[in-house]
C-alpha cells in the first residue's frame, strides 16, 4: 500500500522540484505553450531558483511544500509554493491595493502526472491552508492557464472560483490567456 504525506521543502529537494516542474509542464502544458519554449527550459536554472526559494524566502509566510509518495521507497511527486500576494498576483491595470493584506497567492501547485489522482494535490492544498490560517490569511488567489482544465477543475472542485480577472502571458510572441481564481481561507475547523 502506498502512503502519501506533505512536508516543508528542504534545500536538497531543489533539484527534484525543478525536475518535477519540467516533467509536469512538458506533459500538462504541451498543448498550451510552444514546444520549443518547453524544450529549452533550463533545469539547473530552475533548481537554483527553487534552492533560493527554500533557503532564503522573502518572509516567513512564503512557503514551499513537497508531496511525498511513500511505498518501498519515497518519491517527491509534487510541490506547492505560496506567499503574500504581490504585484505578480495582480491583473493588468489593477491597482496595487486591489489585493489587500490578508491575501495569499499560490504561485505553484503541481503533481507530476504519473502520480496524479492519488490525493497528493489535495494533501498539498490542505497543508497550505493550515499554514495560511497560521499566518492570518483570509483569502487565496491563483492564476491558471485558461486551457489548463486539470488545474482549474481541481481548484473549482475544492471551492475556488474565478474572480473575474484575466491576463495573457506573452510566451515567445504567443499570448496565453490565464484566469485568476480565488477562495476564502476557511476558519479553523471546530473541535469535535
UniProtKB/TrEMBL annotation:
**GO molecular function annotations of the record:** acyltransferase activity
Q: Does the keyword Transferase apply?
A: yes
Q: Which residues belong to the signal peptide in this entry? A: none
- Top-rank lineage group of the source organism: Bacteria
Name the residues that span the membrane: none
| Keyword annotations of the record | Acyltransferase, Transferase
Its Enzyme Commission number(s) read 2.3.1.-
Q: Which InterPro entries match?
A: Acyl_CoA_acyltransferase, Bact_Acetyltransf, GNAT_dom
Q: Which CDD domains match?
A: NAT_SF
**Enzyme class at the top of the EC tree:** transferase
What range(s) does the N-acetyltransferase domain occupy? Answer: 4-182
According to UniProt, the name of this protein is GNAT family N-acetyltransferase
Q: Which organism is it from?
A: Micromonospora halotolerans
Amino acid at each position: 500500500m502506498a502512503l502519501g504525506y506533505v512536508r516543508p521543502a528542504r534545500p536538497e529537494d531543489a533539484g527534484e522540484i525543478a525536475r518535477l516542474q519540467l516533467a509536469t509542464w512538458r506533459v500538462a502544458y504541451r498543448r498550451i505553450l510552444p514546444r520549443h519554449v518547453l524544450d529549452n527550459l533550463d533545469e539547473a536554472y530552475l533548481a537554483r531558483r527553487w534552492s533560493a526559494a527554500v533557503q532564503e524566502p522573502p518572509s516567513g509566510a512564503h512557503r514551499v511544500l513537497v508531496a511525498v509518495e511513500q511505498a518501498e521507497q519515497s518519491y517527491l511527486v509534487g510541490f506547492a509554493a505560496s506567499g503574500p500576494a504581490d504585484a505578480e498576483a495582480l491583473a493588468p491595470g489593477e491597482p496595487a491595493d486591489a489585493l489587500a493584506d490578508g491575501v495569499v497567492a499560490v504561485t505553484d501547485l503541481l503533481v507530476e502526472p504519473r502520480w496524479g489522482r492519488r490525493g497528493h494535490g489535495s494533501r498539498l492544498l490542505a497543508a497550505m491552508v493550515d499554514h495560511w490560517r497560521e499566518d492570518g490569511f483570509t483569502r487565496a488567489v491563483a492564476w491558471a492557464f485558461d486551457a489548463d482544465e486539470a488545474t482549474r477543475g481541481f481548484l473549482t472542485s475544492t471551492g475556488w472560483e474565478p474572480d473575474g480577472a484575466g491576463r495573457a502571458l506573452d510566451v515567445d510572441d504567443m499570448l496565453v490567456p490565464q484566469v485568476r481564481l480565488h477562495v476564502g481561507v476557511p476558519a479553523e475547523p471546530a473541535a469535535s
